[in-house]
Amino acid sequence: MRIRTLAAVFAVLAAAACERPAEPADAPAAPSASAYTYAAASDVSGYYVSSSEIRIGKWVLDYLFIGQDTEFGEWTGANTAATLAPVMVEFSDATSPMVEVEVGPTRSIKALVLPTRYAVSDDRIEFEGTSPEMGPVRFEGRIDQGALATSRRNLGDDGVVVTGTLTAAGQTVRDVKLRWWLGD
Q1: Burial 146-183 (b: 16+ CB within 10 A, else e)
Q2: Which stretches within the chain are classed as H helix?
Q3: Which of 2, 13, 41, 157 falls 20 to 30 Å from 183 in CA-CA distance?
Q4: Do residues 142 and 123 make contact, with C-beta atoms less than 8 angstroms apart?
C-alpha cells in the first residue's frame, strides 16, 4: 500500500512539474511581433539629435536612433537583456559627472530606452518604450524626406529633419525638432 501511495505522489509531482507556472498578474505582457513595423522604402537610418537642449527634469535627450533596414527583420523584443534595437532613444542625466569617451566628453549616467512598440515609414516614426530611469517613453514624429536628403548629401547639418512630440517621465514636450546625423 505504501509503495502505491508513494507512486501516486510521484506521479502527481511529475505531472505538476510538466505544467507551466502561471504568470504573475502584474507581469508585463510580451509585445507581439506586430508591435514592430517597418515600412520605409527609403533609407531613414541614422541618429536624430536636437540642435538645442531638450530637457525633461534632469534628463536631456541625446538622440533617437533608427537602424538600417536589415536590422529591423531580427528584432522581436523578446531579448530583454538586449542593449541594441533598430529604434531606440537615449537620455543623459544632466547632473551626472562628465567623462571622456572616444568621441569626446559626455555625461556618465545614461538612460537607454529600448522599444516595446515602433512604427517606421518614409514619413513617420512612432516609438514607445520604457526604462527604469524614465518610465514610459513615447515619441511621435514626422520625417521630412526633402530635408533628410539634403542632410544626407551634406553628411549632416543643422536643418530640421524630424518634428514631433516626446513624452517621458510624465512630461510632454511638443514641437521637438531633430536634425540628422550619420553617427560615428
Answers
A1: ebbeebbeeebeebebbebebbbbeeebeebbbbbbee
A2: 2-18, 69-72, 145-153
A3: 41
A4: yes
pTM over cut 0.85: no
**Do residues 122 and 41 touch, judged by C-beta distance below 8 A?**
yes
Cell output for 155: 553628411
The percent of the chain in helix, strand and coil, each rounded to the nearest 5, is 20, 45, 40
Q: What is the pLDDT of residues 49-104, one digit of tens each?
A: 998 999 999 999 999 999 998 888 877 777 666 788 999 999 999 999 989 988 88
The C-alpha cell 514641437 sits at: 175
Neighbour count for residue 128 (Cβ, 10 Å): 19
CA angle 99, 105, 110 (to 5 degrees): 65
**Dihedral angle at the C-alpha atoms of 55, 112, 158, 184, nearest 10 degrees?**
150
